[in-house]
């Protein structure tokens, strides 16, 4: 299915059986093809696959629509194409067939690091292939080259009130970058449909490249006004530059954590609110900057990305109330207090997952390898909460998934490392989610996917349908 020099899906799956990993790792060096060349090679096979599906199976039934799907936020309804990742309720996310541990084994890290970096994850998401270290470096260099913000966007962001939520500022900044959209300019000139994806790809790479400078500028304006932003370092990876710009560049452990965080949050199949928003808005052929700014506003809701800020707020309030005597009994009591006051337990539950989120596990494992995190009071509280919360939520009896999602720990590690401004945390998520949402935009244009326009019904119509 994949072009020459690629790793097939089945081989990627096999990769999770660790015995085959050495073989797999040695087959991943495919020379120095660029990202664009690689995509040009893999796209025709996917176009063919879609053409065949349409021709042979357009009328094949693959599921039922129940009333609960219509009134229940479309949970479980298979109704959109998404190429880069698939979420299994029990196993969690796989990126082109690779689980998180698989990715940790095969995706190249930064030269001075061990964790997955944004570039290697982006390459995998876009192409279905594991990049070589050289390909990863090539992409890092390109992103660093393109990373500066235009003056107009700098001025716009600098003019925003300090009190405006950082996520609102990020959405505004991203949408304003569409001033220079290559896709929009080419569309105005009348480009052919077959050229959509190439211009989309250029905009997507430009946007991903500029996100660290934009996100860091917002951080500095809001929390460290008057401090100077360093220049982008052409030898650093995207996240290496991001931590430098934030002012935490000399904290290697935080940089490594952010590399892992940003790679892991990159994609979570298509139905989550931010990815789906990018897909919906992008389906109108609005440019990647507009589509992704819309996605950011979905991410900014407390049931979605903003939960990572809410978790920290909630854990700190718990810490304050319990004091030093942190026992299972005390945590249990606090959980019941939260639930009995009609609030959700942030960081727990999920629209699809029915087991602990493997992203949560991966971040917890990161904490276990760092003595400073193992001993951190906030991380210990997260761990103790995990020991108690599932049983309390089961007893409460409402949530279909009593286990932690990624937000249950992600912000707490940042807090430990001194990045304590929790209203900023979802911005970091926003830097990450671009990897998957923009990947799909490229694929949607390469495959010529249509305008998204589901049918809605009123309750009266639904009643008639039910009776019929
Ligand atoms: C990166 C991410 O976006 S991961 C998700 C981050 N969000 C959070 O952590 C917020 C807390 N969790 C939640 O609110 C939910 O679990 C969601 C939004 C993530 C998923 O929602 P759903 O798919 O509707 O969950 P589910 O079907 O299990 O909900 C059934 C009931 O359990 C409740 N429930 C779900 N999770 C929780 C929770 N963590 N605490 C308390 N109650 C919960 C729901 O509010 C719902 O109650 P209702 O019947 O009174 O409306
Ligand atoms: O999948 C979802 O609905 C929410 C989520 O975990 C994500 O978007 O990362």
TrEMBL record:
PROSITE patterns per the UniProt record, alphabetical: CITRATE_SYNTHASE
Domain of life: Eukaryota
Swiss-Prot/TrEMBL keywords: Mitochondrion, Transferase, Transit peptide
Swiss-Prot/TrEMBL GO biological process terms: carbohydrate metabolic process; citrate metabolic process; tricarboxylic acid cycle
Cellular component terms per the entry's GO annotation: mitochondrial matrix
Active site (UniProt): 304, 350, 407
Protein family per UniProt: Belongs to the citrate synthase family.
Name of the protein: Citrate synthase
Originating organism: Leucocoprinus leucothites
């Amino acid at each position: 299915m994949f072009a020459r020099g690629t790793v097939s899906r089945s081989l990627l799956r096999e990769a999770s059986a660790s015995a085959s990993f050495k073989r797999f790792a040695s087959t991943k060096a495919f020379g120095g093809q660029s990202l664009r060349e690689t995509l040009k090679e893999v796209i025709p096979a996917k176009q063919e696959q879609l053409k065949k599906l349409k021709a042979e199976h357009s009328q094949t039934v693959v599921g039922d629509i129940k009333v609960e799907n219509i009134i229940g936020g479309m949970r479980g309804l298979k109704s959109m194409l998404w190429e880069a990742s698939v979420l299994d309720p029990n196993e969690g996310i796989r990126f082109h067939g690779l689980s998180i541990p698989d990715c940790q084994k095969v995706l190249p890290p930064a030269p001075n690091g061990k964790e997955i970096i944004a570039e290697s994850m982006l390459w995998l998401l876009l192409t279905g292939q594991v990049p070589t270290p050289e390909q990863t470096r090539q992409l890092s260099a390109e992103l660093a080259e393109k990373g500066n913000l235009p003056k107009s966007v700098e001025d716009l962001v600098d003019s925003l009130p300090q009190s405006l939520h950082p996520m609102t500022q990020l959405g505004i900044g991203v949408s304003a970058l569409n001033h220079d959209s290559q896709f929009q300019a080419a569309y105005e000139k009348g480009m052919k449909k077959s050229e959509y994806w190439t211009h989309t790809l250029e905009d997507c790479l430009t946007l991903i490249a500029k996100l660290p400078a934009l996100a860091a500028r917002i951080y500095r304006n809001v929390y460290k006004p008057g401090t100077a932003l360093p220049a982008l370092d052409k030898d650093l990876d995207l996240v290496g530059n991001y931590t430098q710009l934030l002012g935490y560049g000399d904290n290697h452990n935080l940089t490594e954590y952010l590399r892992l965080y940003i790679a892991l949050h990159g994609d979570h199949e298509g139905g989550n609110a931010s990815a789906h928003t990018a897909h919906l808005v992008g389906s109108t052929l609005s440019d990647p900057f507009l589509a992704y700014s819309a996605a950011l506003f979905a991410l900014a809701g407390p049931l979605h990305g903003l939960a990572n800020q809410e978790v920290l707020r909630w854990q700190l309030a718990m810490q304050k109330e319990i004091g030093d005597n942190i026992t299972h009994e005390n945590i249990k009591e606090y959980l019941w207090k939260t639930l009995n006051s009609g609030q959700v337990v942030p960081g727990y539950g999920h629209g699809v997952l029915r087991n602990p989120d493997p992203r949560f596990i991966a971040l917890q494992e990161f904490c276990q390898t760092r003595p400073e995190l193992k001993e951190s009071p906030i991380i210990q509280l997260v761990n103790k909460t995990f020991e108690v919360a599932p049983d309390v939520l089961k007893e409460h009896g409402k949530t279909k998934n009593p286990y932690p999602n990624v937000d249950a720990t992600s912000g707490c590690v940042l807090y430990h490392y001194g990045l304590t401004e929790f209203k900023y945390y979802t911005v970091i998520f926003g830097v990450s989610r671009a990897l998957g949402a923009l990947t799909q935009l490229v694929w949607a244009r390469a495959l010529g996917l249509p305008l998204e326009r589901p049918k809605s019904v009123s309750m009266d119509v639904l009643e008639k349908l039910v009776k019929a």
